[in-house]
Amino acid sequence: MLLQELREKVIEIALKAQKERLISLTMGNFSARDKETGYICITPSGMEYDKLTAEDIVVMDAEGNILDGDRKPSIEHPLHCAVYRRRKDVFGVSHTHSVFAAAWAACNENIPVVVAELAALVGGPVECAPYKPMGSSELAETAAAHLKDRHAILLANHGVLAVGHDIEAAFANSVVVEEGAKIAYYARQIGVMRVIPEDECRSLRKSTLEKYGQK
Ligand SMILES: [Zn+2]
After folding, report:
1. Which end of the chain, N or C, is less packed with Cβ atoms under 10 Å?
2. Is domain 4-210 given the CATH code 3.40.50.880 in the classification?
3. How many Å lie between the centroid of ligand 1 and the Cα of residue 76?
4. How many Å lie between the centroid of ligand 1 and the Cα of residue 28?
5. In this structure, are residues 43 and 64 in contact, taking their beta carbons and an 8 Å threshold?
């Protein structure tokens, strides 16, 4: 089987996202790009995550051609492919409809950066890309263009697109965005939010890249 290990990793992350309550039922989709071949392993459309096996994960190229697997890929595969085509540094994409982030997206509002983790991991506020229908090539192109060099954006009236240097990092960014969205929501109820200034966001991001973790 082509890329068995990476396909299993995609299932592991989808299950983790379910456990973290970032997704309900089969909503949301996840992919990882293989560093050697450039092939993309993506969750299938509308299948329950806890029943998935490696064969169910679809392998495709960045143009959307299926290379291995009998399942229909996620309806958002054009979105994943568009991101991989534009971003050579991205090897994992996580798309969820997590509730608090989706609430900001429902208002077409950026999530302000009021917590350090959001600045450190995502690099600043989470901006909202304009509305396009789900699964469409317009959504794919608009979202990928709006993402620029960032690690996460909102998709208006829809959800969150998070990316990373691998699928674990993309998933972690989804979690951080949801936490940031939740905290910003509550903060707004308490009073006036104090947004972390742009230069401080940059310095938090830089020091995290340099110092965080075990490497
Ligand atoms: Zn979606």
Report:
1. C
2. no
3. 7
4. 5
5. no
Question: What is the average per-residue pLDDT within 151-167?
Answer: 97
Q: Could you confirm whether 76 is annotated as catalytic? A: yes
State how far the Cα of 109 lies from the Cα of 129, in Å rounded to an integer: 9
Segment 198-206 shows an average pLDDT of: 91
* 129 Cβ contact list (under 8 Å, min separation 6): 142, 143, 146, 147, 153, 154, 155, 156, 161
Residue among 12, 76, 178, 210 flagged as catalytic:
76
CA of 74 to the centre of ligand 1 (A): 10
When the pLDDT of each residue in the chain is averaged and rounded to a whole number, the result is: 94
What is the distance in A from the centroid of ligand 1 to the CA of 54? 22
pTM summary value: 0.95
- As a whole number of angstroms, the distance between CA 45 and CA 51 comes to 13
- Pairing label, strands 29-33, 92-96: antiparallel
From CA 157, how far away is CA 133, in angstroms rounded? 9
